[in-house]
C-alpha cells in the first residue's frame, strides 16, 4: 500500500475517530488513550479484538517470531500483517518499549502477505529515533531505501504538519543523508540536503562535509560551492574539515586564488587551520608552479607550530624538479630531516625523476642505496623512473639490467615499464626488439595498451617504415583497442613526414567518424607537416580554417610557421610573423626562441641571436640545453670560443646539463683550431659524466688526423675509457 503525504494526513485524521490520539493536532508524537501497562498487556479500546490483549499470546509472538506464527497467533492478531492501519496502532501502543515495537515490526514483515506501508516505516523509525536506538533505525532506513520508499518518507519527515517532532525528523533525515553518502548516491544526498534546508531543518555539519567530499571527488566544484554557500547562509558553521574539503576542491581545479581567499575567511571566522589545510594549499600552489608562495606557506606552518611531514614537502619538491631546480629540491629533502619530517619512498622517487629529466641518472641511481640505508624498499615507480632515465640517454643496457633486477625482486613490471623500454628502443631505431617486447607483453606480461601501439607506430614512422606503422595500427584495432586522439595524430605525423598529405587528411576524416573532431593539436600537426613540406600557402589556409571553426592559433602554430620561413631563408618574414604573434597576446615558448636563435646564430647573425637569448629570459622564458647548444654552435663557428665556454659554464651553473651535442660542438671546433688536448679533455669529461658519444662525436674528433694517427688516437681513447693515462 503506497501512501502519499496527503494519504498520510487523511489516515491520521481518520485514525482519530477509530482510535483516539491526544487532543493537539500538532502533537510531536502519536498518542493513544491506551498505554501498555508494566506487564506489556494491550489495554486497547473495545474496537480491537480481545485477543490483542492476551499478554501471553503477544509475548509469544515477540519471543518466538522465528516459529510458525499460526500455532501462536489468532486470525485477529494476524490482521496487523495485512492491514497497515492496525500495524501502526500496535506499534504506537508500545512506543515506549522500542525493542518490543521493533521485534513486532520484524515479525510482521516476515509473515506471508505482509502489506508494506511507508507510514508504518515512518512510525517504527520515529519510535526508534525518539528512544535513541539509531543503529536499529539505520537498518530500517536501509530497508526503506532498498524498497524505494525514501521519497514518501522524506515527504513525511520534512512536513511540519505531520505528527513527527522536529528533533526526531532531523535525526532521521540526517540518518538518511548519511546512508546516502555511504552509498555514494549523490543526487539523493542533494535532494535530502535541499529539502531539509527548504523546510527549516539544518543538516548535521558532518553530513554536509560528506556531501562536499563527494562533490570534490567527482570534480563538481561549482555544486560544492553552492552547497557550501547554502550551509553558511543557513547558519551551519563550517568545520576545519569543511574548509579543507573546499580548499582541496579549488586546488584540484587550479583555482588557488579562491583557495587562498577561503583561508582568509577561515581565519576571520575563528576556525584554526590544521596541517592538512596547509598541505592542501602547498600542493595546489606547487601544481600551479607558484613555488615561492608554497615555500612561504611552509614557513607560516612552522611559525604556527603545525607539524610538517612528507605530505607537506613532497609536492613542493615535485614542483622544483619539474622546472629543473634540483638544488632547491634536494635542499628541501635535507630540510625535511631537520624539521623531523621523514622522507618517504615518494620523496626519493620525485627527486630521482627530477635528476633523470636532467640526465643525471647516476645521481638518481645512488638514491636507491640511500633508500636501502634507511630500510626503505624501492617500489615499481622507483625502477620505472630509472629505466626512463637510462632510456632517455639511450643506455638501454642499463635499462634492461634494472628491468631484470625489478623482476628478481618480485616487483611485477607494469605496462608503463614496458612502454618506457619500447620507447627507448624505438628512439634508437631498434624496432625488432621493441616489437619482441610487445609480443612478450601479449604472451605473459601486462597487456599492451593504446600507448604501447602508439609508441611503436611513431617509431615506425620515424624510421620511414610506413607499412609497419599501418600494420601495428591495424593490430591495435584487432586487439579491440580504440585509438585515441594521440594515436591518430601519430599516424598523421608519419604520413606528413613521408610527404603524403592526402592520406594524412584521410586519417583526419576517419578521426571525425570515430568521434574525434579536429582540435588545436590536430591542426598544429597538419600546419607543422605542411610547413615542413614547404607548403606555406596551404599551411596559411589551414590557419584561416582554424579561425573559422573557432580555434585560435597558439604558440605551437606560430612556431611552425616561423620555422618554415627560417628554413626557407626568409629571416625577415620569420621576424614579421614573430611580432604578429606578440601583437595578438600569444607568448612565445622556449621552442619559438630556440628556432630563432639557431637560425640567426648559424648564419653568423650573432647580435640578433643574443638579443633573442636575453629577451626570452626577461620575459620569463628560460633557455634549455637545446637553446644553449644553438648559441654555442653559432659562437664556435664564429671562433668566439671564450664566449662559447662562458655559456657552456653558465648553463651548468644553472643546473642545465650538457648533452652529447654540446660536447660534440665544442670538440669539433677545438679540432678545427688544432686544440687536440682540449678536445680530448672534453671527450673524457663526456665519458666521466656517462654521456655516450656517437658517430658524429667520433667523426669530429678524428676528421683532421692522418691515417697513421687514427690508430694511435683509438688506442689512446681506449686507455681513457679504461681509466689509463
Give a written overview of the molecule.
The protein is elongated. It has a domain of 68 residues. The chain is mostly helical and 725 residues long. The protein contains 40 helices and no strands. The longest helix is centred in the N-terminal third of the chain and has 17 residues. The chain starts with a helix and ends with a helix. Helices cover 70% and strands 0% of the residues. The relative contact order is 0.03. Helix 19 packs parallel to helix 21 and helix 21 packs parallel to helix 23. It comes from Lupinus albus. This is Putative pentatricopeptide. Belongs to the PPR family. P subfamily.
Q: In total, how many beta strands?
A: 0
Which value, in Å, is the CA radius of gyration? 37 Å
Share of β-strand residues: under 5%
Structural class comes to: mainly alpha
Q: Mean pLDDT across all residues, rounded? A: 83
Count the DSSP helices. 40
Low-confidence regions: 1-60, 62-72
Helix percentage: over 70%
The end-to-end span amounts to 99 Å
Shape: elongated
The biggest beta sheet, please?
Answer: none
Organism: Lupinus albus (White lupine)
Pfam families: PPR_1, PPR_2
Family: Belongs to the PPR family. P subfamily.
Protein name: Putative pentatricopeptide
For this entry, give a set of tags.
mainly alpha, PPR_rpt, elongated, TPR-like_helical_dom_sf, PPR_P_subfamily, 725 residues, Putative pentatricopeptide, 0% strand, repeat, 70% helix
